[in-house]
Each structure stands twice: as structure tokens, then as C-alpha cells.
Amino acid sequence: MEILGLSEPVVRLMSFASIFIILAAIELLAPRLERDEMRGALKSRRWMTNLAMVVLSSVALRIIFPAAAVGTAIWAESNGLGLLPMTGIPLWFAGLVAFVVLDFAVWLEHVVSHKWPWLWRIHRMHHADTGFDLTTALRFHPLEIVLSMLWKAAIIIALGAPPIAVLIFEIVLNGAAMFNHANIKLPKPVDALLRLIIVTPDMHRIHHSSDLRETDTNYGFNLAIWDRLFSTYTETPRLGETGLEIGLKEWRDDRPARLGWALALPFRYPPSARPSETADQKSPLGNQRR
């Protein structure tokens, strides 16, 4: 698949690099939080680990699932698979439906990764980061990236999602994830307006709180509607934006910034390991998470 003479991987790489550079510059000019984890030597170690993680995940995905999302959509289209082609609706509308359904599927996958013990032990590597910036959006274990792609591929085939819609979704999702993990300060009126539609950094940062009452909320990566619809939305952190503790209570040292430690985390500790939870911190959904 080509866009303006450029192959799909090149288009995605250019989009990723452009968004990353812009957000990195904004983080330097207008950081939301200024903490030890987000500056100096520890920031450098975190960035090296998080950037290495996205490289390893990309390699693993290319080896295990070379078709990726867009390739899956092209294959489904060429074989006449999926519900949307059967409806006869216009391409633009089919693309819009596919975009919204895929966004919900990613939100649902995220919720399940917090509730199912064996998925949580993989996903918690993302939450173990003691800092919160745009590289945190890249900090996913290769196992999680592969499993996520299998889930998206199943949805794409079931829908018969148009390949161009899948490409747009993948670019938007990656860009949105970097944006809402970015350590940038938005004016309150702008944040309040944006979060009616999309997930903002202040909104998603709450999800990275070490307090389970907040970790089990704000699961969205792109569209903000799902957390409101399913009552998993938290507007502000209990300790305030600057008092919010990020990461997992078990690991408050520099271990999460080490690449080897992060890669081994799903296998190093039992699936029951989870953030500490006091009696007054237990949430209605918390008992399912291990």
C-alpha cells in the first residue's frame, strides 16, 4: 500500500518521527512536572530503555506478524471478508465505523490487561515506569505488542475494515498515545475542551497513579468517550496534579529504568504481584486485578 508514492511503513515512520520530535521539543519548553525521574541521568536511562523497548517490539512484530494491521486489512479485503463490505455502505462511512470500533477494541483490551492476572503481569511493565513522558507511550513489552496486534487483526478481519482506515487509525493511535503520555502543560481551558473528545496528558497521567483507585480509571488512549460511557473516568487526581505519585509502589527505585529488568518483569514475579492496596483504597473492580 502506497500513499503519495511512499510505502505504508515509510508513512508510519515519518509520522511517528515527526510527532515524537514535536512533542519532545514541547516537553523541554513547557514541562508539566519537573521531577528527578524526568530530568538528568535517570531520565536518560529511562529514555534509553523505553526507546530500546519500541525497537525490540517492532522487530518482534515484524518477525512474528509481518503483515501487521494494514497488511491484515489488505488481505481481508482481497478475500472479501468482514461485515462492513456486506453492508454496501460508502467507503468513508465504513472507514469511520472501523475507526471507532477499533478504538473501542483498544480501550477494551487495555481494561482486560488490568483485570486478567496473566495479562497484567505483562502490562505492568508499562506502569512500572516511575516517570511519565512521551517515551512512556513506547514502553510496552514485546509480548504485549504481539498480543495486541493479534487482537486488532481479529477485529480488522471481522469488520473487513478498509485498509486506508486502518492506516489512519494506526497513525492516529500512535500519535495520540505519545501525546497523552507527554509531560506537557496545557492551559486548563484547552485541556477541558480537548478531553471532551480525546484523552489529554492530564487525563491519562491519572491512570499511571500508584493509587489503585486512580490506576483503574482513564483507560483510553485516543477517544475520551469510552471511560465516560463505562464509568471509569476520573477528572482529577486525589493528591493534585503535582502531588500524583507515578508508577507502582513495589518498585520506587531505578530498577524500572533498566532494560533487562523491564524485559524480565513478566517472568520475574508471580502474577499476584500488584500495587499495594490498603483497605480504603480497594475499588469495586480492584478485586479482579492481580
From TrEMBL:
Pfam families: FA_hydroxylase (PF04116). The chain crosses the membrane at residues 12-30, 51-76, 88-108, 149-173. Residues 96-232 form the Fatty acid hydroxylase domain. GO terms for molecular function: glyceryl-ether monooxygenase activity; iron ion binding. It is found in: Endomembrane system. Its main location: membrane. Residues 269-290 are annotated as: Disordered. GO terms for cellular component: endomembrane system; membrane. InterPro entries: Fatty_acid_hydroxylase, Sterol_desaturase/TMEM195. Keywords: Lipid metabolism, Membrane, Oxidoreductase, Transmembrane, Transmembrane helix. GO terms for biological process: lipid biosynthetic process; membrane lipid metabolic process. It is a multi-pass membrane protein. It comes from the Bacteria. This is Sterol desaturase.
